[in-house]
Design goal:
Elements lengths: L2 H23 L2 H4 L2 H43 L2
Helix pairs in contact: 1-3
Length: 78
């Protein structure tokens, strides 16, 4: 994998951690954004927080798995 690939995966992890933190600490401005407001209107504040926490966990998992399997894939290349 190239350094750019690792950079993108690190962005996934960082955004995922931020999303989880925003959900846990109930950051007001985060849930007032236009994108989050859709989920707040649809499921309420609690449902939006749960959704964004799950989304954050998924982003972190994808980023970390990409890094781990990217290292393994890169090591097996001749």
């Amino acid at each position: 994998m190239t350094p750019a690939d690792y950079f993108i995966l690190a962005i996934f992890v960082a955004l995922g951690l931020f999303s989880v933190a925003a959900s846990i600490f109930n950051i007001e401005w985060y849930f007032r954004t236009e994108g989050a407001a859709f989920f707040v209107r649809r499921w309420g504040r609690r449902g939006a927080r749960i959704f964004y926490a799950c989304l954050g966990v998924a982003l972190v998992a994808c980023g970390l798995l990409g890094m781990v399997y990217g290292l393994e894939w890169g090591a097996s290349k001749p």
